[in-house]
Description:
Elements: H1 2-11, H2 19-48, H3 57-64, H4 71-121, H5 124-127, H6 132-173, H7 175-223, H8 225-231, H9 234-283, H10 288-321, H11 323-342, E1 357-365, E2 375-383, E3 387-391, H12 398-405, E4 413-418, E5 421-422, H13 423-431, E6 434-438, H14 448-452, H15 463-472, H16 476-481, H17 499-512, E7 517-521, H18 529-541, E8 547-551, E9 563-568, E10 571-576, H19 578-585
Parallel strand pairs: 3-8, 3-9, 6-7, 7-8
Antiparallel strand pairs: 1-2, 1-4, 4-5, 9-10
Helix pairs in contact: 1-11, 2-4, 2-6, 2-10, 4-6, 4-11, 6-7, 6-10, 6-11, 7-9, 7-10, 9-10, 15-17, 17-18
Amino acid sequence: MFSHLKEIFYLLGDDRRRLPWLIVIFIVSSLLDIAGLGMIGPYVALVVNPDALSGTSHAQLLATVGLSTEPQDLLVILGLGLIAVFVLKAAAAILINRSILLFSFKRVVQIRAFLMSSFQSLPYTEYLRRNSSEYIYAIHGLTTQFQGIMQSILRLISEGLVGIVILIFLALNSGSVLGLVVILLGGMILVYDRIFRRNIREYGRLTNEHATRMVQGIHEGMEGLKEIRILNKEEHFRRTVTDSAKIYSEIYVKSQIIRTAPRYLLELILVTFVVILVLGALSLGQDLNALVPTLGIFGIAALRLMPAANTIYSSLAQLRFGRNATSLLYADLKQLEQRSASATKQTVSKDPEPFQTLTLQNVCFAYPNARQSALNEVSLTIRAGESIGLIGPSGSGKTTLVDVLLGLLEPQLGKIQYNYQPMQERVAEWRANVAYLPQQVFLIDNTLRCNVALGVLEAEIDEQRFSDALQKARLSELVQELPDGVETIIGERGIRLSGGQRQRVALARAFYHGRSVLVMDEATSALDYETEHEVVEEIKQLKGQKTIIVIAHRLTTVQNCDRIYRLDKGEIVEQGSYADVVGSLK
């Protein structure tokens, strides 16, 4: 438990400095509870016996401040005072609940923002080690659980303080009756917790495990819908999601039953307490009228202690249930914060230095746990305005080479220089000049306008630049055909556009953002010959104006390139003009 609390304290970050202020609010609220309980006894006694307060300290206090001590007047004064105290107590309870919710939600927003930023900044090789569903679940699922844990801890402190203060008050009134309450309530909670503490912790671990599988199944089933439907394998992914969801639900139901059952057991304890107290008084021959004020105080106190005890146990159960989520989140956050502290953040000015040259010298790269290198002593130079083609069979290292060129992968050996300076010092500036056009263009489920000006707030889109980008990418005719023009929603991954149109949207995006280097990674391989020819012709018009790096299987795609590199097994085996390289293959 200590290590768990240590992890929670770490995850609270700078917000832990607000905890003392919250505790002060909790203490004030508990004092209001005591004030309310302190007034209930005299009020009940006065109702039962109008002369009960005559000559007491309560009557003397009222007389001192100039108030009437007549029984009827006392009933009115104490009644109004009782209402006022409970109004304040209700207001304090609402304030506490609001403070707890604001505290937990604010911290979760901060953690989600940090995780999103950090996951996006991970080295590419490290990012690939985990399934994307793990990142999604960490940002959404684990943080949601931690939000519940924060609320549970704060409510545990709040209700714990209330419980302690009420128990002290009851001890001053009747130690023997208090002992009975403590034995009944405390004994039940301890026995119940002893029985189920391990179960609830295991349920938390299993919940995270199956929730992650469920997210993965949903993501894969939706992402590959077309291929899955053609193969008639919908049932496989439906079963994966259903099985995980079923186990998740069963485990969650069990954990909820364990957490909520004490409420009903506490009601049983409360009734048992009252019956034992009355029967005990009868057996001892005591006057039951004299027991009424005590029953009133302890009855109201029990009504307050019962939800407090239930909240305390429920919070403890939530802490155990969230043990696995806290550990996973703690491991992620600590590792990411350490990486963030050691990383040097590169900034790019609004007008980055224009691209001049990119040079690779004897670059070697191997993926983790791979038996052989993906790139082996690769050397090449790309100058501004050149068109470079990269060809070779599947697995020859073309895509790995482009990932190295883009700064996504860092080579183990060799040097990369951007504008005659080490790449690692200029990678942000290099990327500020690059547009990446893969085979499957990244498009969001939004308007054509928002896809072209990706990452720019709609109100801040430069209309002239946007119009020029559409014109250069030859999208003007498409815009006229769309039902809502540039405001047309193009669907998830641009599903409402053809392959060629999606590639043109990517080109328009590069023009809008003013990128001088176009990297085309098999960008035309999924297009038919006619559409590919159109896109190639459009790229041809950019020759000399833009630096173009083309990865292609089809040799016709690189026929207009100034220089072609042919790769095989991670090595450049041939380079030269299209006639030299392609001619040698015939």
